TrEMBL record:
PANTHER family given in the database record: ACYL-COA DEHYDROGENASE, ACYL-COA DEHYDROGENASE FADE29
Protein name: Acyl-CoA dehydrogenase family protein
Organism of origin: Streptomyces yaizuensis
Family from the record: Belongs to the acyl-CoA dehydrogenase family.
Keyword field: FAD, Flavoprotein, Oxidoreductase
Cofactors: FAD
Annotated Acyl-CoA dehydrogenase/oxidase N-terminal domain residues: 15-128
Keyword DNA-binding annotated: no
Leader sequence segment: none
């Protein structure tokens, strides 16, 4: 969740100036939406790093933090939404530093020591250091409290052994924040600690990409074999990692949800254009599905705006996840349906070098099958709402 000021006095003139400045800055560096050098190219790590540093020089990283001083500008909550809207409308690159900016930094601001803030916030705000999240494990995905990766105190360091999985940006990251078990014999949420560790530890940290049915590898396995974390880089007290981790998960949605929805709107518009071009829009069932997708997207936006300042609402992130995950999955199905039989064939010309080539719609459809699983499955989101919001009895473990 964003941490910016929610000024009681509205400032429409200031917001208009902010929007004009953001739009002008993005246009000057990206041009109008289209295939410009900094635009989405997940394979060009050099370009992605250069873009993050450009954002940092402009002060556009960390505008949701409650204070400046790290090279970032501050902004009201309204202005954070404006920046997110303009960034998405400009079709700016997918962020390489979003985990550090939107997850790690707010956690340090809430729970970190002055030395930790001084060490890590500046490089994030300047677009110089990138982070990944070491939470899920085999057998401990949505049920995070079942994790087994262990860390043993060794003087002024911890030595970490275990495995994490589904780790986005692990190959690109300089640092990882990991939830690990520091109390031998402890179970569930007790005995966990929140550690920050460098990824560049040959022989101690190994990253293996996971090839998905899309043919791409957005996720990774990470193996720790005696990986070292400085004890001074433990966030919160030893054994208090669960509380820190829950605070981080509460910030995992927020303004970024609105950015996501702008992308969803563009995808829906593409579906409508395709339905018209193929004649599928003449089918009343297809038209009904399109209208439902449109109406549900508007509802998601209103819900996201309503809950932006709901830092104390334990159900808000889960409701948001349930809404968008199912919606996007259904959109993927609709996108394929309106194309007809063509949706089942690969792009021409066929290439022996890349026999599994997919076009963007096919790739989005396949990836969307995982939307209701990653980031906390629908089942777990419903459990959170039932137990923490509605006060229903806990399910037997």
């Amino acid at each position: 969740m964003a941490n910016g000021s929610t000024d009681a006095a509205l400032d429409p003139d200031g917001d208009r100036r902010f929007r004009a400045e953001a739009r002008q800055w993005l246009r000057a560096r990206l041009g109008p939406p289209g295939p410009y050098p900094y635009h989405r190219d997940d394979g060009d790590l050099t370009a992605r790093r250069a873009w993050e540093r450009e954002l940092g020089r402009g002060g556009w990283i960390g505008i949701g933090w409650p204070e400046a001083g790290h090279g970032n500008r501050t902004a009201t909550l309204t202005q954070q939404v404006i920046w997110a809207e303009e960034y998405a409308a400009a079709e700016a690159p997918a962020r390489l530093g979003h985990i550090g900016e939107n997850l790690l930094a707010p956690t340090l601001i809430a729970h970190g020591t002055p030395d930790q803030k001084k060490r890590f916030l500046g490089p994030v705000a300047r677009g110089e250091e990138y982070w990944c999240q070491g939470y899920s494990e085999p057998g401990a995905g949505s049920d995070l409290a079942a994790l087994r990766t262990a860390a043993v105190r060794d003087g002024d360091h911890y030595r970490i052994t275990g495995q994490k999985i589904w780790t986005s940006l692990a190959r690109e990251a300089d640092w990882c924040f990991a939830l690990v078990r520091t109390e031998p014999g402890s179970t569930r949420h007790r005995g966990l600690s929140f550690l920050l560790l460098p990824m560049d530890q040959p022989g101690r940290v190994t990253v293996r990409p996971i090839r998905q049915m899309t043919g791409t590898s957005e996720f990774n396995e990470v193996f720790f074999d005696g990986a070292v974390a400085d004890a001074a880089h433990r966030v919160g007290a030893e054994g208090d990692g669960w509380r820190v981790a829950l605070g981080l998960l509460a910030r995992e949605r927020g303004v970024s949800t609105l950015v996501q929805q702008i992308g969803f709107a563009a995808e829906l518009a593409d579906v409508v254009r395709t339905a018209v071009a193929t004649g599928a829009a003449t089918d009343p069932v297809v038209r009904d599905r399109i209208v439902r997708q449109w109406a549900e997207l508007r509802t998601m936006r209103w819900n996201a705006l309503r809950t932006l300042g709901a830092d104390g609402d334990p159900g808000a992130p889960s409701v948001a996840k349930l809404l968008w995950a199912g919606w996007h999955r259904r959109l993927g199905e609709l996108a394929m349906a309106v194309r007809g039989a063509e949706a089942t064939t690969g792009p021409a010309p066929w290439s022996a070098a890349d026999p599994y080539a997919l076009d963007p719609v096919q790739r989005a459809f396949l990836f969307s099958r995982a939307d209701t699983i990653y980031g906390g499955s629908d089942e777990i989101q419903r459990e959170i709402i039932a137990e923490r919001v509605l006060g229903l009895p806990r399910e037997p473990r």
